[in-house]
C-alpha cells in the first residue's frame, strides 16, 4: 500500500500524518519547538528548529512503520501563515523568522494603509494587519537595514521546509495570499504592491498551485532516511486552507472552527467578490479557483496554554479541564477576554490585553478554566457574527479542528455558543490531513481535492446545541462584546507604563 505524508508546520510543533491510499491513518509523529519572545509583542522562531523537528518526525515514522521507507510516495505541507523567513544569496537564514503572532509592526501597518490602503484592499482583498508578511518586510527595511541589504529570498515557513527537501523555492497561492503581495484574482505577485514598497520581485519564489510538484526529495535526504522509491514533494498550503480541506469545507454550507495556538472561524467562498472591507480576511484557497474567508483570534489555544502554565503548571490539559461540565455556562459570573497578545478579529488592536471580569470569592481554578474556554469561543463567535451580518451566511454545522477539539466539554461549549451542530474529524489533525490530501491529488490518486475529500475525510461525534445553554450564552455573549470597548483605553494607558 502506497503512503502520503502530510507535514503540518504549526506554531507550537511540527506534526507528520502518514496516510494510505484510502486515507486511513497509518501513523503520526510530533515534535515541539519553542517560541522566542525577545520583547513584549515580538514572536519569533528559529527555522533551524523546524528542520530538526522534521528530521525527528521522519526518523520516528521510519522507526514505527516497517514499510515507511519503501512505500512513501509523496509529501506535502501545511504551514503557519504569514511568518517571514529571509535568506541571503547563499540561501542561508539571515535572522529568526518573524511570526504571524508578532505585533511589532503597528507603525508599518498604519503607513501602508495611509499610503496605499484602498488599492491594497482591491488588489490583495485584505488590509494591512500586524501579523501579515508585508509589514514585517517593511519593519526589516526600516529597523535592520544591514539585514535587508543581504536579503535575496523571502519564504514562508512551509516553503523553507520545502526548499530544504528539494533545493527549489516555491510558494502556493493560498500562502502567498497571506503575504499581502499577491494579486488575489490574477494570481500573480502584484507589481503595484512590490513597486510601492521597493521589494524586488526576484526576492520572491515561483508561484504554484497547492498540489503542484515542486521537486523530488534531495538524494542526500533520500539516503539519510533510506527511502527506496523516489519521493515527490508538492507545494502544500496555508494551514487554515489545509485544515479547511481536511475538514471537508469544500463548499459554503459548513463552517470551520480551528483552535490551535491561534483560533480561526472560516467559511468557503466561491469567488473573491464578497466584500468584507478588510473586517475578515479573504484568501485564495488550495482548491483551484476557490477562496475562503476567516477571522482570527491571536491567542486561542495560546490563552489556555498561558493559563495552564501560569496557574496549573503541573497539570495536564485533561486534569485542568476535568469537571468543566459541573460548572454552569457563564462560569458563575466570570468572563475572560483572550486578548493576551493583542487581537486581530474583530478588534485590530496590538495594545489591547486580556481580562477576567467578575471575580468572586467563590470562584475556583475550574471557574477560571471554564471562563478561558468560553472567552476563546466568544472571540471566534465574533467572526461567525461578522459572516452572518455582512454576507448573510448561516451555519447549521461547524467542523471543529485543532487541539481545542480534543476536549468534549469544550465541544459542547462550541455547540452552545455557535448555536450549531459541532462535528470533529476521525483523523484529529485537520491541517496535516489537508496537506496529505494535496500530495494524494498531486500524485494523481484523485482528480480533484473534492474527490479526495470524499474518500479521505471522515467525521466522528456530533455534538448538538442544548437550547437552555444557547439562551444563556446569548446573554453572556452580549456582555462579552462590551468588554473590549470598556477596557480599551485602560489597556492602552497601561501599555505606556
Ligand atoms: N487535551 C486538550 N484539551 C483542550 N485543549 C487542548 C488539549 N491539548 C491541547 N490543547 C490546546 O490546543 C493547542 C494546540 O493546538 P494545535 O492545533 O496542536 O496547535 P498549533 O497548530 O498552533 O501548533 C494548545 O495550545 C492547547 O491550548
Ligand atoms: O495568522 C494566522 C492566520 O491568519 C494563524 O492561524 C497562523 O496560520 C498560525 O496557525 P496555528 O499554528 O495556530 O494553527
Any ligands, ions or cofactors bound here, and which? adenosine-5'-diphosphate, 5-O-phosphono-D-xylulose
* Rg (C-alpha, Å): 22 Å
- Subunit arrangement of the protein: single chain
| Range of strand content | 15-25%
Morphology call: globular
Report on the biggest sheet: 7 strands, mixed
Helical segment count: 17
> What share of residues is helical?
25-40%
Return the structural class.
alpha/beta
The total strand number stands at: 24
Unreliable parts: none
Rounded to the nearest angstrom, the distance between the terminal CA atoms is 61 Å
Mean pLDDT: 96
Task: Walk me through the topology.
Blueprint: E1 3-9, E2 13-20, E3 25-32, E4 44-45, H1 47-64, H2 68-71, E5 72-79, E6 85-87, E7 97-98, H3 106-124, H4 133-143, H5 145-150, E8 153-155, H6 157-166, E9 170-172, H7 173-176, E10 182-183, E11 188-189, H8 191-196, E12 206-208, E13 213-216, H9 219-225, E14 232-234, E15 237-238, H10 239-246, E16 254-259, E17 263-269, E18 281-284, E19 291-297, H11 301-311, H12 317-321, E20 335-337, E21 355-357, H13 365-391, E22 397-401, H14 408-418, E23 421-425, H15 430-442, H16 449-456, E24 459-463, H17 467-496
The chain binds adenosine-5'-diphosphate and 5-O-phosphono-D-xylulose (5SP).
5-O-phosphono-D-xylulose binds next to helix 10.
Amino acid at each position: 500500500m502506497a503512503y502520503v505524508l502530510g507535514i503540518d508546520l504549526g506554531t507550537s510543533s511540527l506534526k507528520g500524518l502518514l496516510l494510505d491510499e484510502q486515507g486511513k491513518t497509518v501513523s503520526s509523529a510530533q515534535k515541539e519547538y519553542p517560541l522566542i519572545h525577545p520583547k513584549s509583542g515580538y514572536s519569533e522562531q528559529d527555522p533551524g528548529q523546524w528542520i530538526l523537528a522534521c528530521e525527528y518526525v521522519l526518523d520516528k515514522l521510519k522507526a514505527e512503520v516497517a514499510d515507511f521507507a519503501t512505500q512513501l510516495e509523496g509529501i506535502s505541507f501545511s504551514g503557519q501563515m504569514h511568518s517571514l523567513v529571509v535568506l541571503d544569496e547563499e540561501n542561508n537564514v539571515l535572522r529568526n523568522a518573524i511570526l504571524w503572532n508578532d505585533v511589532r509592526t503597528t507603525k508599518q501597518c498604519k503607513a501602508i494603509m495611509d499610503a496605499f490602503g484602498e488599492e491594497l484592499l482591491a488588489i490583495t482583498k485584505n488590509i494591512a494587519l500586524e501579523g501579515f508578511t508585508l509589514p514585517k518586510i517593511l519593519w526589516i527595511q526600516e529597523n535592520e537595514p544591514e539585514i535587508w541589504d543581504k536579503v535575496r529570498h523571502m519564504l514562508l515557513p512551509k516553503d523553507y521546509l520545502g526548499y530544504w527537501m528539494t533545493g527549489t523555492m516555491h510558494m502556493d497561492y493560498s500562502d502567498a495570499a497571506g503575504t499581502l503581495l499577491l494579486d488575489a484574482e490574477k494570481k500573480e505577485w502584484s507589481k503595484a504592491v512590490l513597486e510601492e514598497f521597493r521589494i524586488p520581485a526576484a526576492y520572491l519564489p515561483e508561484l504554484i498551485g497547492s498540489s503542484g510538484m515542486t521537486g523530488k526529495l534531495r538524494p542526500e535526504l533520500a539516503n539519510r532516511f533510506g527511502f527506496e522509491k523516489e519521493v515527490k514533494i508538492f507545494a502544500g498550503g496555508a494551514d487554515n486552507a489545509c485544515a479547511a480541506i481536511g475538514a471537508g469545507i469544500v463548499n459554503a454550507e459548513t463552517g470551520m472552527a480551528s483552535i490551535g495556538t491561534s483560533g480561526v472561524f472560516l467559511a468557503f467562498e466561491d469567488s473573491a467578490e464578497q466584500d468584507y472591507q478588510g473586517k475578515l480576511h479573504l484568501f485564495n484557497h488550495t482548491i483551484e479557483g476557490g477562496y475562503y474567508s476567516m477571522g482570527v483570534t491571536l491567542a486561542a489555544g495560546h490563552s489556555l496554554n498561558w493559563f495552564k502554565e501560569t496557574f496549573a503548571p503541573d497539570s495536564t490539559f485533561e486534569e485542568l479541564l476535568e469537571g468543566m461540565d459541573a460548572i454552569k455556562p457563564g462560569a458563575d459570573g466570570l468572563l475572560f477576554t483572550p486578548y493576551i497578545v493583542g487581537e486581530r478579529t474583530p478588534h485590530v488592536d496590538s495594545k489591547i490585553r486580556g481580562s477576567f471580569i467578575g471575580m468572586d470569592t467563590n470562584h475556583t481554578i475550574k471557574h477560571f478554566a471554564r471562563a478561558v474556554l468560553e472567552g476563546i469561543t466568544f472571540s471566534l463567535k465574533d467572526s461567525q457574527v461578522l459572516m452572518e451580518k455582512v454576507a448573510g451566511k448561516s451555519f447549521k454545522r461547524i467542523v471543529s479542528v485543532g487541539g481545542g477539539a480534543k476536549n468534549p466539554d469544550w465541544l459542547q461549549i462550541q455547540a452552545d455558543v455557535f448555536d450549531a451542530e459541532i462535528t470533529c474529524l476521525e483523523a484529529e489533525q485537520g491541517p496535516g490531513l489537508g496537506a496529505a490530501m494535496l500530495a494524494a491529488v498531486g500524485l494523481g490518486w484523485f482528480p480533484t481535492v473534492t474527490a479526495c475529500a470524499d474518500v479521505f475525510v471522515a467525521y466522528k461525534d456530533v455534538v448538538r446545541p442544548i437550547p437552555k445553554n444557547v439562551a444563556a450564552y446569548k446573554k453572556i455573549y452580549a456582555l462579552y462584546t462590551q468588554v473590549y470597548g470598556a477596557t480599551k483605553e485602560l489597556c492602552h494607558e497601561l501599555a505606556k507604563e
